[in-house]
Design goal:
Length: 139
């Protein structure tokens, strides 16, 4: 808690992509989307100055998820074909990107529930977590 860094070892996803034509491709899409979603939740901050000029202009400032930070992903596949196309397929990569920020931020809030902190932004950067904890302790 002192650093505000978020660590998690396992990430579980259950999704429905309709008819799964190639399971290996589906796995890659979901895991890749999840990596992007984790980046959105914890790393990828785009800052601007008072004149609306970007201040995160390189990869030293705009952080991305690195391979060692990627948790183990456990996938659960459901197949309920859609009647809206002849193959019964649905989109697959979106579930990782869209769901990850809400799931991760909710998990952090749950872990910090004894302190009564809540977050209303992404990414959830370590300094924001520490600031919320310090402000909560001083109240």
């Amino acid at each position: 808690m002192e650093t505000g860094k978020v660590f998690f070892r396992n990430y579980i996803i259950v999704h429905d992509c309709g008819t799964m034509i190639n399971p290996m491709i589906v796995d890659g899409q979901v895991i890749g989307g999840t990596a992007h979603g984790i980046g959105n939740a914890l790393f990828e901050w785009m800052g601007y100055d008072e004149g609306a000029q970007p201040i995160t202009t390189n990869f030293a400032e705009y952080l991305l998820l690195n391979a060692p930070e990627m948790p183990h992903v456990t996938l659960g596949h459901m197949e309920s074909p859609t009647p809206l196309n002849p193959l019964g397929v649905k989109g697959v990569g979106e579930c990782g990107v869209v769901a990850a920020p809400a799931a991760i931020i909710s998990a952090v809030e749950n872990a910090l529930s004894p302190f009564g902190v809540y977050f209303d932004q992404a990414p959830l950067r370590p300094m924001e977590i520490v600031k919320k904890l310090v402000n909560t302790k001083s109240d």
